[in-house]
């Protein structure tokens, strides 16, 4: 397919996309090449934690680009060392490996766990993951995921992943064997429709993994970097995992991810792990700028407050239209529509200049910038309210 000014068919057709071509972004807004403005409550799937093209990231990139892009991962560089140290100081972890995407970070976590099993657990290699989980699109991370649509794809899959049920500790216990080395989960399953692990389940899971000498891996690609009102989601439950992965928000819009581990779990040897662009100074300079902003107590409080306001407004909207529950935490929330009308609502919102996401047919997902304002939240809610009234998608009850 081609467009007057854009050869769309030059790109592989791997997903359905609207014909809007975005050319500029600022804060909560995007503009397409026709000059239309869109209020963005997707922000690159929770990537742009400071909004579109924030000056702090643009300035950090420009300054670093004038100094050094990358010297090769065979050498140290200043921004990479500084960002690793800052992450260590702000978390329960001791060492960091940088990557370019969340899938790559998760792949690294899987490899690290298997290395740990080789060294310390008689070759144990199985990792218990969860139905509904999503960990990426490499062969190993697709195999680790519990996404039904992945099951028939790219067979044979990577073996060694057994699926438990979220918030069901007995289902985890039933899968533990001598071959088990770790348990890996998203604290909130975003792609499945924003289903949270309870704090109680996280605590019980940490106790269970310690009891059996297993590693606990938290995939915080989407929940990390302030998304749920704390810098890292595991803090809500008061637990300390062995391994954590970060992505999306850590770069604020540039390709950056990280694998963090405690000293106990950090067992890679020379040659086990690497990557040409991993930890390059340009991306790490952006990560430093993001972390400095997001980790400020006043920023995290404002993000948490915005999340509570969004949750409250969604609950009111749901009550007005006879919809379902609001799930999630902070600024990662979903609205249960009760009906498979998500795609239609997304399309109407796009036409009205608002970008939202439907991860499942009966749910809408909201992932705005962490510095989203109450006014912007209200504008989005007004748009959804008008769509629901106009389409008669659900019965008004108030």
From TrEMBL:
Pfam families documented for this protein: Aminotran_3
Pathway info: Amino-acid biosynthesis; L-arginine biosynthesis; N(2)-acetyl-L-ornithine from L-glutamate: step 4/4
Catalysed conversion reaction: N(2)-acetyl-L-ornithine + 2-oxoglutarate = N-acetyl-L-glutamate 5-semialdehyde + L-glutamate
Domain of life according to the entry: Bacteria
Cofactor: pyridoxal 5'-phosphate
Gene3D superfamilies with a match to the protein in the record: Aspartate Aminotransferase, domain 1, Type I PLP-dependent aspartate aminotransferase-like (Major domain)
One Gene Ontology CC term in the entry: cytoplasm
InterPro entries: AcOrn/SuccOrn_fam, Aminotrans_3, Aminotrans_3_PPA_site, Class-III_PLP-dep_AT, PyrdxlP-dep_Trfase, PyrdxlP-dep_Trfase_major, PyrdxlP-dep_Trfase_small
Subcellular location as annotated: Cytoplasm
Coiled-coil residue windows: none
EC number, as in UniProt: 2.6.1.11
Stored CDD domains: OAT_like
GO MF annotations, alphabetized: identical protein binding; N2-acetyl-L-ornithine:2-oxoglutarate 5-aminotransferase activity; pyridoxal phosphate binding
Free-text cofactor note: Binds 1 pyridoxal phosphate per subunit.
Entry annotated with the keyword Cell membrane: no
Biological process, per Gene Ontology: L-arginine biosynthetic process
Residue positions, PTM N6-(pyridoxal phosphate)lysine: 248
Residue numbers binding pyridoxal 5'-phosphate: 102-103, 134, 219-222, 276
The protein's assembly and partners: Homodimer.
Note: May also have succinyldiaminopimelate aminotransferase activity, thus carrying out the corresponding step in lysine biosynthesis.
Protein name, entry field: Acetylornithine aminotransferase
Organism name: Bradyrhizobium retamae
């Amino acid at each position: 397919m081609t467009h007057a000014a854009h050869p769309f068919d030059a790109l592989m057709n791997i997903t359905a996309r609207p014909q809007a071509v975005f050319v500029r972004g600022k804060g909560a807004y995007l503009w397409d090449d026709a000059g239309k403005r869109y209020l963005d409550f997707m922000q690159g799937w929770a990537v742009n934690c400071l909004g579109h093209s924030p000056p702090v990231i643009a300035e950090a990139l420009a300054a670093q680009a004038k100094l050094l892009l990358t010297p090769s991962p065979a050498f140290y560089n200043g921004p990479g060392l500084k960002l690793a140290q800052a992450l260590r100081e702000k978390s329960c972890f001791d060492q960091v490996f940088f990557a370019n995407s969340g899938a790559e970070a998760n792949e690294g976590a899987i490899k690290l766990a298997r290395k740990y099993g080789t060294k310390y657990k008689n070759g144990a290699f199985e990792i218990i993951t969860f139905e509904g989980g999503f960990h990426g699109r490499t062969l190993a991370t697709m195999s680790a995921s519990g996404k039904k649509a992945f099951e028939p794809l790219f067979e044979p899959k990577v073996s060694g992943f057994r699926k438990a049920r979220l918030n069901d500790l007995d289902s985890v216990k039933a899968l533990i064997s001598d071959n088990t080395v770790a348990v890996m989960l998203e604290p909130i399953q975003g792609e499945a429709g924003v289903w949270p692990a309870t704090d109680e389940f996280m605590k019980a899971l940490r106790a269970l993994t310690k009891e059996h000498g297993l590693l606990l891996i938290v995939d915080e690609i989407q929940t990390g970097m302030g998304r749920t009102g704390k810098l890292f989601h595991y803090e809500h439950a008061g637990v300390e995992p062995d391994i954590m992965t970060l992505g999306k928000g850590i770069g604020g819009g540039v390709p950056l991810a990280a694998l963090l581990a405690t000293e106990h779990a950090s067992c890679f040897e020379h040659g086990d792990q690497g990557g040409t662009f991993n930890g390059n100074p340009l991306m790490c300079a952006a990560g430093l700028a993001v972390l400095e902003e997001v980790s400020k107590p006043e920023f995290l409080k404002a993000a948490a407050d915005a999340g509570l306001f969004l949750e409250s407004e969604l609950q009111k909207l749901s009550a007005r239209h006879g919809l379902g529950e609001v799930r999630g935490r902070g600024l990662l929330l979903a609205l249960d529509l009760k009906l498979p009308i998500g795609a239609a609502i997304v399309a109407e919102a796009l036409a009205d200049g608002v970008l939202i996401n439907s991860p499942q047919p009966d749910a809408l997902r909201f992932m705005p910038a962490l510095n989203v304002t109450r006014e912007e939240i209200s504008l989005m809610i007004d748009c959804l309210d008008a769509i629901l009234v106009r389409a008669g998608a659900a019965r008004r009850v108030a």
